[in-house]
Amino acid sequence: MNKIFSSFFFLLVSYCLGYSQDTINPYNAEKQIHKGIEFHDKREYTKAIEIYQQVNRNDSSYNWAQTELSLTFLRMKEYEKVISVCRKALTNKIVSDPLIYSNLGTALDEIGKSEESLKVYDAGIKIFPMNYLLYFNKAITLQCMGRFQEAVENYQKTLWANPNHRSAHLRLGYLCADEGKYTQAMLSLITCIILAPSDSISLEILSFLNKFLAQKNTLTPKKIILSEGDDFAGLDMIISNHLALNQKYKLKGKFDFPIVRQIQILLENLSYIPGDKGFWMQFYVPTFTEIMKTERFEPFLYCVLLSSTNASKIGRAHV
User: Fold this and answer.
1) Does 170 or 57 have the greater pLDDT score?
2) How remote is the C-alpha of 141 from its chain's centroid?
3) Where are the domains of the chain?
4) Does domain 13-162 have CATH number 1.25.40.10?
5) Is 98 helix (H, G, I), strand (E, B) or coil?
6) Which parts of the chain fold into alpha helices (H)?
7) The model's pTM
């Protein structure tokens, strides 16, 4: 009996020692995943993958490791591997990370399976209804499919879930510009600038707005109903007729660019209408109307123009 037990014990210990060489000790899994993330951030993707794949399926951190693994494959544009990892993760009864759905949807979209991608996003949204990234990625897929109306709706849902999501402001702003909706375009694009005023994207937006607000709109509308309500027709008329560009119009600050003049006239004429349930009225206008009420126009303007290290950069598109 003792010999049988000893033999069994020897085999068990040998198996455990051999097994531990190929998998991560469960007590160290979280620490190792963090190390994998560090490799990912350094773009050392192969090292990150090796670490993620060592996490035992029975470990409590396994789902986390699979999420990070799918993200690394996504960055490597290994879309089939992303799909494989995410599909396996979804076989678990509990998926705790919406990124599994987001990464799977993105990978499917990248290989041309857009309809299937939308179904994945919808499945994720059903479980994680306040996850902004699922709405945003769904919106991108819809926009690429030419379903602009639905894309706009999902960009709006993105912002209700995460008001600081710059790319959603940016994409909404450009869609508004396409439709010739000056007020809505300015509100969205200026908000995008304010969220990171000193980066290169903000400078690109400034250059675009400086040109867009000084010339006749030549963009092709897509006939999108941006939202119910949002009656800015009067203000759009003021902006599109370039009344602020008249030299008789009195500026409040020292910078004299088309965008500066148009921002000033926008804020001077913008008013919040509680009964107007349009997205732009309810999401943007309450904040923007406070700028003039609290006499903070000049500090606000400096923040908007911060991405330009010198004034000439703002006007390059206009010169």
Assistant:
1) 170
2) 13
3) 13-162, 181-319
4) yes
5) coil
6) 2-22, 29-41, 45-52, 62-75, 79-89, 99-110, 114-127, 132-144, 148-161, 166-178, 182-195, 200-212, 233-240, 258-269, 279-283, 285-293, 297-304, 311-314
7) 0.85
At residue 122, does pLDDT exceed 50?
A: yes
Q: Can you give the pLDDT at residue 10?
A: 42
**The one-letter amino acid at 289:** T
Q: Which long-range contacts (CB under 8 A, 24 or more apart) does 138-145 make?
A: 138/105, 139/168, 139/171, 140/109, 140/171, 141/105, 141/109, 141/114, 141/117, 142/118, 143/171, 143/175, 144/109, 144/114, 145/114
Q: Which residues contact 256 (CB under 8 A, 6 or more apart)?
A: none
| Paired tokens of 226 | 């941006």
Least confident of 104-113, 240-249, 295-304, 306-315: 306-315
Q: What is the mean pLDDT of residues 77-99?
A: 89
List pLDDT tens digits, range 6-49: 443 344 334 344 444 445 555 588 888 999 999 899 999 999 99
Report long-range pairs for 215-224 (Cβ below 8 Å, ≥24 apart).
Answer: 217/177, 217/180, 219/177, 219/178, 219/180, 220/178, 221/178, 221/179, 221/180, 222/148, 222/175, 222/178, 222/179, 223/179, 224/148, 224/149, 224/152, 224/175, 224/178, 224/179
- Transcribe 122-151 into DSSP letters: HHHHHH-TT-HHHHHHHHHHHHHTT-HHHH
